Structures are given as structure tokens and as C-alpha cells.
Amino acid sequence: MSRFFHLRAVSWLAAFCLFSGSLHASDAHAQRVQTLMQHSGVKEAITAFPEFLKIGIHNGAAQAGMTDASQLEPLDKLVDTAWAPEPALALIEKVLSERLPDAVLDDVNRWLMSPLGARITRMEVAASQVSAIPDMETQAPALVKRFKGSAREKQFEVFDRVTQSTAVAVDTAMAVQLAMSVAMLTNAGQKPEVAYEQVSEHIEANRFMLRGMITQQIFLSYLYTYRELTDEELHSYLEFARTDSGQKYLHAMHQAMKEAMIKPARTLGQEMPKALAPG
Questions:
Q1: Does pLDDT of 15 surpass 70?
Q2: Model pTM greater than 0.85?
Q3: 148: Cβ–Cβ under 8 A, 6 or more apart, which residues?
Q4: Selection from 171, 167, 172 nearest residue 46 by Cα
Q5: 210, 221, 63, 68: which is closest to 140 by C-alpha?
Q6: pLDDT category, 10, cuts 50, 70, 90?
Q7: 180 and which of 46, 127, 169, 269 could share a cystine (Cβ 3.0–4.6 Å)?
Q8: How many other CB atoms are found less than 10 A from the CB of residue 222?
């Protein structure tokens, strides 16, 4: 539960104890955030993200007819530079520190370090690696067949509503795409306000299609990631996510991840034309 540093003294030590207690409280809050960062899997997810972005760029390039791998090397290097994990993790830690009080951090850390919470985090980390993509794609048809009509399939709607996975993924994808595209157009001489209006209208017009694609991807990821959990274990996970602390944690983490991606996206958009320029 909550940990408050109530210091009461009637002697001359009162002022010192109060000051010292404030320092300890601040240190303790930072340690709570560090514990969350260590056990939540966010470090592994952020570190893996650039590789997923490269895959997306390579797939898009292939569809556009760019088959020469050497043409993509500058983009790969640009992604590595723009999406360095250290600044992103520092921003995420800052956002979580500002938005989550000690009581919430205690509840979340207690869950993350519980046997089930730690096991689920390991599953999520394993599924968030690029190396998991081939296995996920291979197992997807069998998993869909295995869980068709089951409680697990029906529970996805609850999972998605409680975790806001689809809504957050759509909003984050649109924000990143907007930041990249506006940066590219502005760098090419377009006025920022004109570029923003033009790109935002185009992106918003494709929201429904994007949501459908992302929902399907998240459903398959859900089946794959939690395939070894029992229905009771998944229910326990969702029960935690439903709590006030669980909801505050999820909202703060989602916002932190989104904010951490915006600046690198702008950098990528600004530098991409140069990386693709001949010579």
C-alpha cells in the first residue's frame, strides 16, 4: 500500500529529520520508478523497436520496387541514430516518475515481481523481439484454429478494452506517421501549418483501415504471447489491469511510449530525404 514519510519530533532534530525525510522520499520514489523500469520489460521493447522499424521500411521499399539492399543501408543507419534507446528510456522514466505516485508504483511493482506478473513480462518480452516474428507467423494459423470459439478468443475483447491496446497502437502509429511526414514536407520547403493540415487529413481518412489492420495484428500477438497461460492466469492479469493502479500505470506507460517516439520520428522524417539522395 502507500508508503508515507510522516516525521514527527518535538526536539531540535525535527527540522533535520523532516529535511532528511524529504530527501529519502525523493530517493525512494526514484528507486520505485527504477524498479518498474527494470521489471516491466519496457527497456527490451524500446531496444527492439528500431529493428521492427527497419523491417517496415524494407517491406515498404520492396513494394515500391527498391530491391537493391545497398540503397537501404543509409536508412538503416539513420534509424539506428534517430531511435537510440537511451533518450527514449530517459523520457519514459521521467514521464512515469511525474505521473505515478508512490502508492501506484508500489502496487505495480508488487504485481510485476509476483511469480505470475514476472512470468507474463517474460512472455511479453520474448514476443516483442524481431526473432519471434517467424515463429509467430508459423504458429498463427494453428493458434487461430486452436482458440476458435474458446473463452480465450472471447476474452480478447475484454483484454483489448482493459489494456486499450488497439486504440493506443492506432493513436501512436498515427502520431509517429504524422511527425515523420510533416518533418519531411517541411524539410522540402512546405510551410509547417500547411504540411500538418495536409498530412493529418490524409492520415485521419485512413484511421478505420489502419485500426482494422492493427486489431488483427494485436489479436494474433495476443494469442501467441499468452498461449501458455491458463484462462485463470490471464483472468488474473486482467483483474490487475482493471484496478485503479493498473489503469493509471497503463495510461502513463502508453503516453510515455508515445512521447518517446515522436522526436525520433521527426528526426527520421527530416533526415530521410538526405539519406535517400543519390551520391
A1: no
A2: no
A3: none
A4: 172
A5: 221
A6: very low
A7: 269
A8: 22
